[in-house]
């Protein structure tokens, strides 16, 4: 799969500080029941709320706006970091190595055992 700057993932952190990434998603926003990152977060909030009905949703960051006429969310501005029931969800743009200036370095391996 060819990744572009228009792909996103969701960074998840648990109460015990374990973390993992989910994605990639083609869009960050979009209408309900799309395959965007925001919709995946909505589903997780619903699942956690059903298991922990008294859990409070804390919005550390919530900037979600449609910009332009992108019906499927491809032009949405999404900067979200929310927490519920000990889980934190944050939408992060995924960049291809060619756009994030990754370079190859020549690394010489050293022997694992040195003689004395």
Could you tell me how far the N terminus lies from the C terminus, measured between alpha carbons in angstroms? 50 Å
Order of helices and strands: EEHEEE
Helix content: 10-25%
Count of helical stretches: 1
Shape: globular
Strand share of the residues?
25-35%
Sheet with the most strands, sense and barrel status:
5 strands, antiparallel
> How would you classify the helix and strand content by structural class?
mainly beta
Number of distinct beta strands:
5
Radius of gyration: 19 Å
Q: Could you give the order of strands across the largest sheet?
A: 2-1-5-4-3
Uncertain stretches of 5 or more adjacent residues:
none
Please indicate the count of domains: 1
Average residue pLDDT: 75
Explain this structure:
The mean pLDDT is 75. The longest helix is centred in the middle third of the chain and has 15 residues, at 37-51. The protein is 13% helix and 34% strand. The protein has 1 helix and 5 strands. The protein has one helix at residues 37-51; strands at residues 7-13, 19-25, 58-66, 76-84, 87-94. It has one domain. The protein has a 5-stranded antiparallel β-sheet with strand order 2-1-5-4-3, covered by helices on one side. It is globular and about 35 Å long.
């Amino acid at each position: 799969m060819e990744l572009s700057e228009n792909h996103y993932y969701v960074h998840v952190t648990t109460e015990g500080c374990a973390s993992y990434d989910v994605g990639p998603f083609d869009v960050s926003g979009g209408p309900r029941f799309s395959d965007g990152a925001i919709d995946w977060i909505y589903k997780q909030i619903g699942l956690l709320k059903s298991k922990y009905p008294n859990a409070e949703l804390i919005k550390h960051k919530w900037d979600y706006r449609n910009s332009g006429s992108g019906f499927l969310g491809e032009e949405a501005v999404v900067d979200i970091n929310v927490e519920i029931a000990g889980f934190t969800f944050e939408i992060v743009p995924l960049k291809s190595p060619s756009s994030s200036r990754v370079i190859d370095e020549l690394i010489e391996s050293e022997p694992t055992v040195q003689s004395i």
